[in-house]
Amino acid sequence: MTAASGSGRIPVTVIGGYLGAGKTTLINRLLADGHGRRLAVLVNDFGALDIDARLITAHKGDTINLANGCVCCTIADALGDALDKVLAMTSAPDQIVIEASGVANPAKIAMYGQGWPGLRLDGIVTVADGESVRTRADDKFVAATVRQQLAAADLLILNKTDLLAEEQQTAVCHWLKQQAPDARLLAASFGDLPAAVLLGQLYSGDGHRDGFAAHDAYRTASFQFSGPFDRERLAARIKAWPAGVLRAKGLVYLDDDPGYAHILQLVGRRYSLEQGPAWNGDTPASRVVVIGTDPNIDPEWLRGSLLSACNTNLQ
Q1: Could you tell me which of 38, 37, 25 has the C-alpha nearest to residue 65?
Q2: pLDDT score of 211
């Protein structure tokens, strides 16, 4: 049993950011990455996507099918219709990724993930152009749009860092943290980030960098608990986790609802814990996987934090 399968709803990740920030480059990397997830990617225009022709197995109207199981659909003027089309597919995707237009507020698009039947919001990823974001944020014509996009982020990607000197990157990072104090800030060049960070994949890690062979800056930590958690203490502990923690997922055994697994989701500071499937004879137990930046993620500290919210010892 996994957190994704237990929820029964498809997670939706919204990727936002102003024109030219690098959203399409990031999506191209997701489509080409061997992450093993079947994605439905909703974009405004196929023309901007640089999809390797060898990956395309079918192209029918507003839909492109890829050999890795992913599918791309155009949004046109009706996002709701595009989502319904994805939900009606014979083989449902593991996750939906929506590319917001460069002038859209991703928070409004995220409402579809929160309220559309069969879907749940995973999180909002906003991409910022390290060279131009501060200038655009002061432009009287586009400043409101740019600042809305930054403020909406759960994960905020400072992109094009290869074009910034070290002191410039430090200054932009400081400024971005002021614009989006609740977001987790990451730096990247050409949108090169692990799919696990962007999509929240679960790895069966034990504190090593499982799934991050090409990304030494990230690691996972995996924990198992045999006894139930206290709901309020768990929420309080997670709220106190450091900024190096980017994501967490898991199935949780709670003492106030012991008959059901509960699905834990954390993206940036966006936290949810909702009732999942019944244990149905399985021995109740919790498993939590955390994804973060190395060395800012300390597995032993996280172990102690979780253990203090649990009513028994860690296995």
Answers
A1: 38
A2: 41
Q: What is the pLDDT of residue 76?
A: 63
Contacts of 315 (CB under 8 A, 6+ apart): 224, 225, 226, 285
Give the phi and the psi of residue 223 in degrees, each rounded to 5.
-135, 145
Q: Residue 30 to residues 150, 192, 199, 298: CA-CA distances in angstroms? A: 21, 9, 9, 27
- Is the pLDDT at 52 greater than 70, yes or no? no
Q: Over the chain, what is the mean pLDDT?
A: 87
**Beta strands of the chain (E only): which ranges?**
10-16, 39-43, 56-60, 63-66, 71-74, 95-99, 119-129, 155-159, 184-187, 218-225, 245-253, 260-267, 270-278, 286-293
- Asked if residue 134 has pLDDT above 60, the reply is yes
Please tell me the pTM assigned to this model: 0.84
Domains of the chain from N-terminus onward: 3-199 (3.40.50.300), 218-307 (3.30.1220.10)
